[in-house]
């Protein structure tokens, strides 16, 4: 405000002075006939100004300069402090077990079972093998000759004493543990390094503003009414000329044939004789005896299983007459087949 008030006062004083100068010049012309040009005033002597004493002394011309300040754009550099992260390395102790365990991955084949659907017929057929004794008829016992050298050699192991030379006196080496002192060079005085924690101060120029997110308004959708059409059932009367008959299905009996289990034919294995060639000795005249080596059969104890009875499921057939014929054939075969 002061910058604008002072120039305004200076302009007003200059205008007032210009208005008074022509009157004084006329008075001077009337008195002496001389023209004195007076321009400008000194602001400090404004209150002591006397117009009737001006002709006695010479006044110099004074100019009044008005300075007007015009704002000009200029760049201002502002220092904004910011945090600088500094990494300080420090020692981290990690306990390592001794001996150190090293895990090594070894590939292993793993069987993965995949479930596949398998069709199983019903009723399920189970085949059970029952062992039975097979008798092989032999016509007559035959002679088997085994060559035995004469005289027969019998090897018998007889233990005997073996003398081993042993020096006298006998030296026995026995390891006795004993303490072994190993000198370790230790400097004197011994240097002990102790780590003392201390505070590290970081210089910060001045506090700076930190932007904090402020809460802001969020528009929330309000519930509004929705028109829902609701269907209301009502009776509709249809005019019918006259009542008419409507056929309604009634339950009726249905005869179902239930199959009755009947006997069926079972194949039975009947033992029979099988002719098997039995080797026998054939004497061939030879000029000189030739050693003949033959196999000797040794009797071996063999366990023979005993046949057991097991239950066989009876199949279901549809036709009754056909089962009766099969039952009759089965009985006829069973009477003739047993021995």
Please, could you describe this protein's structure?
The chain is low in regular secondary structure. The chain is 14% helix and 0% strand. It has 2 helices and no strands. It has helices spanning 2-31, 320-337. It is flat and about 190 Å long. It starts with a helix and ends with a helix. Residues 19-38, 40-54 and 335-339 have low confidence and may be disordered.
> What is the straight-line distance between the termini?
149 Å
State the secondary-structure class: little secondary structure
How large a portion of the residues is in β-strands, by DSSP E?
under 5%
Helix fraction, binned, reads 10-25%
DSSP helical segment count? 2
List the secondary-structure elements in sequence, H or E: HH
Keywords: Signal
Signal peptide: 1-18
Protein name: MAGE-like protein 2
